[in-house]
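As a warm-up, study this chain.
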Amino acid sequence: MNRLDVLLINPSSQKQVYGKLGDSLAACEPPIWTALLAAFIREKGYLVKIMDADAEGWSPEHTADKIVKYNPLLVGISAIGANPSASSTPKMPAISQLLNILHNKPSNIKTFLYGIHPSALPERTLREETVDFICRGECFYTVPMLVDALKSNKKKYEIDGVWYKLGDQIISNGWGKLIENIDELPVAAWDLLPMQLYRAHNWHCFQHLDKRQPYAVIYTSLGCPYNCTYCNIRALYDGKPRIRFRSLKKVVEEIDLLVRQYNVKNIKILDELFVLKENRVLEFCDLIIERGYDLNIWAYARIDTVNENVLKKMKQAGINWLAYGIESASKQVRDGVRKGKFAQDAITKAIEKTKKAGIYIIGNYMFGLPDDDLATMRATLDLAKDINCEYANFYSTMAYPGSQLYEESIEKGIEIPDNWIGFSQLSEDAFPLPTKYISNVEVLRFRDQAFQEYFSSPQYLKMIKEKFGREVVEHVNQMLRHKLHRKILNQPETS
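Now compare it with the structure written out below.
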């Protein structure tokens, strides 16, 4: 039997990143970037497998033992999740642990890392981790060339995107080459994943909490043309803001496969901005409506790109949830991070239109943006309560590696987490940024109190009961009983 060329690993980080929330409330999302890379490699004729240790709940020791048993030529470990910008850096402690265990095993297996964090910090990652290669940025073209080089026993690797050590020297080959026409990408390798293990977010299935499985995620485009200072998504590509679109024919073929072969009903559209081009969204919806599927889809939209026509069509296609990045009630705070140029009243107008179309809303809010103080954060929470979306995500601002905020924090000597798990929103080690006016302790304390205040609001619970029933109200109350332990809230404040 031929030796396996590439074994791709989604490392187990659920407990470190989500704590007890990972047991049932959090989603268990398929590693879409791993599945896309596997499909691309396989189509080129290489032998490839996927090991989703996170979904399987495997320990690092068990994962390492299975890797050695497979004995591939090359192991790729993903530092990226289905929420790309926030789920890369927090995975690094789990990745480091797996690499160290694997390094001490008697084998000649070579390893590489890919994803936002190693792409943002390739040199540092190579120096800190027991890894052979970093594949920087998009690595679809990079990995097959690396496999060929290893098979030829080369000692130097002149391959776009490959970084490695030669003695104490770091050899850089820049960014991986982008796929300009992303229709070159085949359908993700769903057949290599444990599809029975994935489940949707709890709120995504408020209409039917007992039917969170099966679940899948898809892209209809890659990238984002905007340049918000807190976002690090650019490091997944070549460090530049850009967007590339898949043909809708290919997208719908993938949905056909997911529905017919895996009985998927719950789908997340991962695009950073799905509702960007109206004609494209309408065409997508028409193709789904034609098929008569009973889907439960959620996607990201912008306050300034929705209208009654497109909202009505999306609802007909089964797009039941839209996530809006409102971030702050203060235009000054939003402008400070280059988030949107919409007028203040555009927020409430977009929300009203969406509700009128029968689409549920996830409001995304950030506390601790550089120009925030306690008054602006209070205004943001008050806005969230007034809007009263069916769900709300409250984030504390993190200077994620790969973002402009990270670079500015380093330049200005602003304290950031001293360990990678500190970049996790829900971990006990969470260590957000201070603002110009308040400490990170005040930011995190406000964020956690805001979560409790919003979801225990009588107005919110009344709305949830009317729309989804008493069972979902009890589910929300159960969610509130999961109190987060935060180390910095029990320590002296950091300015």
